[in-house]
Amino acid sequence: MVARGEFLEYARVFGKHSYGTPKKWLEESRKKGLDLVLEIDVQGAAQVKEKLPESVAIFILPPSREELERRLRARGQDPDEEIARRLAKARDEIAMFGKYYDYCVVNEDVERAGTRGAGDCNCPARGTSARRRDRVERLLASFGGKD
Fold first, then answer.
1. Domains of the chain
2. For all residues of the chain together, what is the average pLDDT?
3. Which of 6, 53, 91, 94 has the smallest number of CB atoms closer than 10 Å to its CB?
4. Does the structure show a pLDDT above 70 at 79?
């Protein structure tokens, strides 16, 4: 499907998993007059924004590095090295979120984040929102390291 150009977006994540959204899903949704909601990573969002600049992208952010690490460890799926790699990648992705995303929602509570994502996205990623800048800066500071 990749070779035939049948994906709207496609990514290889952490060197071992491949994910993609078939273009036919978008075509089917458009024919029915429906919006298509995708759960994709930053690589996918970049590809979708390039192909469909009018699309609306919402970045679901963790409340802090510590909470993201706790969630990753609670899954019990990854060794320490993988968790460290995921945390480093998360920091880099958060730092560039304004490039691809229109809104951000902080996922402090899954149910509440879903509700905000569905209708009350009042934290614009684009533009000059001081609230957005402050929230993301605090989140990035929780990761330490790079500026």
1. 1-39 (no CATH), 56-143 (3.40.50.300)
2. 82
3. 53
4. yes
The CA distances from residue 65 to 18, 49, 72, in Å, are: 25, 26, 11
Judge whether 48 and 40 are in contact, CB under 8 Å: yes
Q: Measure the CA angle with vertex 108, ends 105 and 114; round to 5°.
A: 55
- Least Cα distance to 132 among 110, 105, 113, 112 occurs for 105
Parallel, antiparallel or unpaired: strands 17-22 and 7-13 = antiparallel
- Annotate 33-71 with b (16+ C-beta within 10 A) or e (fewer): eeebeeebebbbbbbbbeeeeebebbbbbbbbbeebbee
Q: How confident is the model at residue 129 (pLDDT cuts 50, 70, 90)?
A: low
Q: How many helices (H) and strands (E) does the chain have?
A: 6, 4
pLDDT of residue 145: 61
Stated pTM of the model:
0.74
Q: What are phi and psi of 8, to 5 degrees?
A: -70, -45
Element containing residue 27 per DSSP (H, E): helix 23-32
What DSSP character marks residue 145?
Answer: S
